[in-house]
Amino acid sequence: MSRMFNPPHPGVLLKEDVLPSLGISVTDAASQLGVTRLTLSKIINGKSFISPDMALRLAAWQGMQMAYDLWQAEQQVPSEYCSAREI
């Protein structure tokens, strides 16, 4: 497997993909993650690394977001089409 020449900082994904797709600001995301806006800003601007603690926070946050998104989607589907409601 070849190595990427110049891999992007993980924070770039948060800045360019995750936050816009969720439609939330850096301030809101920082609040939900339990960190300061400055801390998250440094990460998404590539000025700070993602610590193991932050990685765990992000994983938990993404898991909660996915569960919320799934619940929202299920509310839009008629009950006869969603067998998950019957379980």
UniProtKB/TrEMBL annotation:
Keyword check for DNA-binding: yes
Keyword Oxidoreductase: no
Domain HTH cro/C1-type per the UniProt entry, residue ranges: 21-70
Pfam families assigned to the protein according to its UniProt record, in alphabetical order: HTH_3
Membrane-traversing stretches: none
Cross-referenced Gene3D superfamilies: lambda repressor-like DNA-binding domains
Keywords: DNA-binding
GO molecular function: DNA binding
InterPro entries registered for this protein in UniProt: Cro/C1-type_HTH (IPR001387), Lambda_DNA-bd_dom_sf (IPR010982), Toxin_antidote_HigA (IPR013430)
PANTHER family (alphabetical): ANTITOXIN HIGA-1
Protein name per the record: Putative HTH-type transcriptional regulator YbaQ
Organism per entry: Mariprofundus micogutta
